[in-house]
Amino acid sequence: MKRLGWIDISKGLAILFVVYFHFFRTVFEHYQLPPNDWSGIGAGMMSILRSAWWEISGVGFHAVGAFIILSGWTLMQSTMARVESGHVAWGKWYVARFTRLYPMYWVAHIVYLVSPFVAKLEPVDDRIILSLLGLRFINIEMNFMYLNAAWWYFAMLIQFYLMFPLLFWAARKFGAWIFLIAACGLGFFVRYLMLGVWPQNGLWLLGGFAVCRLPEFALGMALGFWHARSSARAEWFLLRGPGLITGLILYPAALWLYDLSYVFVDFATGTCCFLVIVGIAGLISRAATMAKILGFVGIYSYGLYLIHQPYVIWLGLRIRPQPIVTFLFVFLITVAILSAWGSVLERTTNAVVNKLLARKRTAPA
Fold first, then answer.
1. Which of 62, 130, 267, 294 could potentially form a cystine with 273 if both were Cys, beta carbons 3.0 to 4.6 Å apart?
2. Contact 242, 95 (CB under 8 A)
3. What's the pLDDT band for 89 if we cut at 50, 70, 90?
4. Do 66 and 98 contact (CB within 8 A), yes or no?
5. What are the φ/ψ torsions at residue 81 (nearest 5 degrees)?
């Protein structure tokens, strides 16, 4: 399967936006933005820029929706490549997927437990067993955000993996766009039930019950299917400007949905964020050095995702409050260190796992 560099860049941008958001929220949690100063043109312009920075920083969690879309895309793309080269043995597919996910996830637990520079906001108790299993949706109020709040995404992801063969079959059987409409209908209906008819804890909608985020995942699958069939047209829309402009134009409407109905908010904001991130990735892909750096971050985004939050909370609690320029400078240094640390952990873990699997395959009966 040909690796798409702009997908890696998009993943890099998305995970950096998530890390930035967690750092921003920690540092400026109790900070009140000063009122706009309109005493002069220069002061007024600085006030506008400061307010824009504040608003953009506050929606960094939308990148999670973009990541769900990218996950659906890459999973669809890789599975279609296997189908076209022969057939998919779903048993082996599951083994490959979970041996990719779980070892690094367990390593992240070890790093959290032994590292001296992480925020340890909760005691280590018997809940860690469910955390290690990835079953954080059991007793969701107590376990979903346990130890490292970012790990809720893992619990959602394994649910998508478990249902993926059925989703893949449906997408190929009925076509990408009919599948997308049906998946959105199911996801929106479940969200409607959990929000109004049978109110549930909001953590279920966040990802505790993966069907609530199925519209984003299905959109990624549909786009991956579309790209496989018409790559030139898909890349023209996503990378050459139309997708970026569409995302920017529709973003205010997506934010307006917060006041109308939360049923559609995650899908709308995630889609707009995805279009903007991929559009920016298309521009960055023309700058070789920047593309290489962000592509590297994207390739190892899984490791960065698993380890970053306790570190940035620990540091953020110790430096707040700070001037905006100082905050941005510290963030750049921090994210560079964490990206390197996450990539080392992920590459080392993958190498050890691959060596163990290779030894097992070649061992005599």
1. 62
2. no
3. confident
4. no
5. -65, -40
Measure CA 11 to chain center. Answer: 8
Distances (CA, A) of 344 to 47, 132, 307, 338, 352: 41, 21, 12, 10, 12
> Which residue reads 């395959």 in tokens?
361
- Contact by Cβ (8 Å): 18, 64: yes
User: How far is 191 from 196, CA to CA, in rounded Å?
Assistant: 8
Q: Which two tokens stand for residue 144?
A: 């979903």
For residue 117 the two structure tokens come to 């520079």
d(CA 165, CA 171): 10
pLDDT digits (tens, 9 = 90+) for 194-239: 999 999 999 999 999 999 999 999 999 999 999 988 999 999 999 9
The predicted pLDDT at position 44 comes to 67
281 is written with which tokens?
């990735």
- For the chain, where are the E strands, in sequence order? none
Query: What is the reported pLDDT for 110?
Result: 97
pLDDT at residue 365, as a whole number: 53
Q: Which pair of structure tokens corresponds to residue 263?
A: 């049923």
Contact by Cβ (8 Å): 342, 308: yes
Q: Which two tokens stand for residue 283?
A: 């521009």
Task: Return d(Cα 252, Cα 271) in angstroms, integer.
Answer: 12
